Amino acid sequence: MLIECAYCDSNVDAMILGEHKSFRIDDPFPFKVTLLECPVCKNAILAGQEFYEVGTDKYEWNDAKRLWPRPEKYLNWNLPKIVRNALEEAQKCYKAKAYSACTVMCYRSLDRICAEYNTKNKLLSGGLKELLNKHIIDRRIYEWGEVIKENCNIDEPPTNEKIFKDEARDLLDFTIAICDYIFVLTNKYESFMKRKEKI
Ligand SMILES: [Zn+2]
Questions:
Q1: For residue 63, what are the domain limits?
Q2: Ligand 1: centre distance to CA 137 (Å)
Q3: Ligand 1 midpoint to CA 73 (Å)
C-alpha cells in the first residue's frame, strides 16, 4: 500500500500486516484501518481509508491517510462537495511537495465557499466581505481569509523550501479551519441549540 512514512519522510510501498473494515448501521461512513510496515525503516504505520462514492452506486476505498505516527488531517464529510474536492487537492499537492499548487488550491477552496453561498461579488475579496456582512463568518475568520487571499496564488513564492513548506502547511491549516467553522461547527452549534430549545 502506498503511503508516506513519517520516519523516512517519503512515499513508500508499505507491507500490509493486518486490516479491519468497519461497516456499522449507525455510522454512514465506513472506514478501513490498516497496520503497515515501512519496507525501508521497518517502522509501523497505521493507515485509514474512507469509502468514497466514485459514480452512481459505485464506491471505492480512497487513498490511504496516515493515522499514526503524525496523523494527517481528515476532512469532514459535511463539507460541500465542491469545497471538499478543492481541499483534497490542496492536501494532495502538499503531500507531493507541490507547495505553490497547494496554496493555489487553498485560495480556490475559499473561492468555492463563496460559490456555495452564491455571493454576488465573484472576486474573492468581495465575496468574503459579503459573507462577513451576512454574518456567515465573523471578523476573525474574515481576517484569516484575507491572510490566505494575500499569501496564496502569488507569483513569487519564497525560494527557501523549508519556509515555503511551513507557510503552505499553515495556510492549509487555516483554510481547513475556516471550512470547518462555516460548514461543520456552525451546523453543529445550531443543531445543539435546537435540541436545547425542544427540551
Ligand atoms: Zn520508513
A1: 1-72
A2: 41
A3: 20
- Whether cis (ω within 30° of 0) applies to the bond prior to 71 is no
Tell how far the Cα of 1 is from the centroid of ligand 1, in angstroms: 13
Please say whether the beta carbons of 40 and 12 come within 8 A. Answer: yes
Give me ligand 1 centre to Cα 70, in Å.
13
Confidence of residue 154 (pLDDT cuts 50, 70, 90): low
Half-sphere exposure of 130 (CA within 13 A, CB side): 17
For ligand 1, the distance from its centroid to the CA atom of residue 40, given in whole angstroms, is 5
Q: Note the pTM of the prediction, 2 decimals.
A: 0.75
In terms of domains, do 52 and 139 share one?
no
Reported as a single tens digit per residue, the pLDDT across 103-144 is 999 999 999 999 999 999 888 889 999 999 999 999 999 999
